[in-house]
Design goal:
One of its GO terms (molecular function) is glutathione transferase activity. This is Glutathione S-transferase theta. Keywords: Transferase. Homodimer. It holds the Pfam family GST_C. By secondary structure, this protein is of the alpha+beta class. It folds into two domains: 76 residues, Glutaredoxin (3-Layer(aba) Sandwich); 126 residues, Glutathione S-transferase Yfyf (Class Pi), Chain A, domain 2. It is 57% helix and 8% strand. It has eight helices and four strands, in the order βαβαββαααααα. Helix 1 packs antiparallel against helix 8. The termini are far apart.
Length: 216
């Protein structure tokens, strides 16, 4: 059975899905979407995802988008009993908490600060940078005394967060000055299955895009 992933290599949310697939030893049929030429706006793509966003996953005719919804779906269907998304209610709630923190606070604030600089030539906003620093302080606090973001085991919360945090490397945000974040980052890089292929390659593509856009 084919699982299609419509994606862009440099996208942090797309990389979170790739990391999850690696952790589950799942093979995805990768379908590159050319956003620059509007492939995501074509009728056939809009049928799959009316929001025309990537990543979009299609599994045996079932279409789902938003990376954190995708990764929870993948573990629920293909990783029953996996510690990636524990079934015990309190443990799962903590993973969900970190996922919502990522989408609603950490990655959102990064996007609010950095993407206008890259794609619209807007000067850096110090107030928005302060909000990112606040989010990093929170993450550092969450990681105090913890090997991973939601406890002693690698979970999809780590895979989502590491895709976001690694993207900071393309910016002027120094997340490594936060000791717990730095330690956790190196831990996930060395323990997440297939990290190099699933995240580092796409991160390099993201860095190249940023460099080319900022030179314009």
């Amino acid at each position: 059975m084919t699982i299609d992933l419509y994606y862009v290599p440099g996208s942090a949310p797309c990389r979170a899905v790739l990391l999850t697939a690696k952790a589950l030893n799942l093979s995805l049929n990768l379908k590159l979407v050319d956003l620059h030429h509007g492939e995501h706006l074509k009728p056939e793509f809009l049928k799959l995802n009316p929001q025309h966003t990537v990543p979009t996953l299609v599994d045996d005719g079932f279409s789902i988008w938003e990376s954190r919804a995708i990764i929870t779906y993948l573990v629920n269907k293909y990783g029953k009993g996996s510690s990636l998304y524990p079934e015990e209610p309190k443990a799962r709630a903590l993973v969900d908490n970190r996922l919502y923190f990522d989408i609603g606070t950490l990655y959102q604030r990064f996007g609010d600060y950095f993407y206008p600089q890259v794609f619209a030539g807007v000067p850096a906003d110090k107030e928005k940078l302060t909000k990112i620093e606040d989010a990093l302080q929170l993450l550092d606090k969450y990681l105090e005394g913890q090997k991973y973001a939601a406890g002693p085991n690698l979970t999809i919360a780590d895979l989502s967060l590491v895709a976001s945090i690694s993207s900071f490397e393309a910016s002027d945000i120094d997340f490594k000055k936060y000791a717990n974040v730095k330690r956790w980052y190196e831990t996930v890089r060395s323990t997440a299955p297939g990290y190099q292929e699933a995240n580092e390659k796409g991160l390099e593509a993201f860095k190249s895009l940023v460099n080319s856009m900022l030179k314009k």
